[in-house]
Structure formats: C-alpha cells, structure tokens
Amino acid sequence: MSFVYSFQKILDMKEKEKEQAEINYSKSIQVLHREQQRLAHLEQNKQNMEQRLLQRKKNVSLAELKTNYEYIDHLQRLIVQAGESKERAEKDVEAKQFILSERAMDQKIWEKLKENSFEKYMKRVRQIEQKELDEIAVVRYYRQRVNPR
Description:
mainly alpha, 149 residues, rod-shaped, 89% helix, 0% strand
C-alpha cells in the first residue's frame, strides 16, 4: 500500500504557476535593468554634451550653439521618457513580485496539505501494523498458554 495524494495534479499545477511567476519576475527585473541603463546612458550623454559646450563656449558659432542646445533639449526629453519608462518597469517588477509571493504562498499551502495527508496516511499504516502485531501476539499467546502442544 503506497501513498497517493488525491490532489497531486493541483499541487503540480501550483508548482508550474509558481515557476511561471518566477520567470515573469525575472523578465521584469531584466527590463528594469535595461531601462535603468538606458536612463543612465542618456544622462551621461547629456552631461558630456553640456561639459563640451561649456569648454568650447568661446569658439562656438551661434548656429552650432543653437544646434547643441537643441540636442541637449532633445536628450532631456528622452531622459524624461526613459524615467517614465523606468517607473513603469519598477511598478511591473512590484506587481510581478506580488504575484510571485502569492503563487509561492499558494504552493506552500498545498504542500502543507500534502504533508498533513501523508502524516494521516502514515498514522493509519502504523495503526494497521500495530493491530496486526497485536493479533500475532494474541495468536502466539493462545498457542503458548491455552493450546500448548
């Protein structure tokens, strides 16, 4: 007689849901890192451009100065967009982390139910074994005391 958990398919499904949540969480972390790197790169480009502009301020034509400021303004708009994108990625990471914790908790509940079911099964097995041992002891006693040959 072996233990068969009647809700094993549900437990398997919960494990798969948790694994999928882990994958989704990992992907959202990767997206967040890319957005952070993109934002840092844009900010560095803007800072470099501003420094170059300050260094060359005396020998710059008006047209070149205007072009440089337009480019800095363009970088600033991209930085704002990248910041918003990073914030969305952070919110997505938080949402995926919440889902992952929910899935993990759900899986633990089902695993605990399985453990409890197994413990009840083992208790029944021990009771059956004990009953069989008691019956063997009674038969032995009967053979030795009541019906000695």
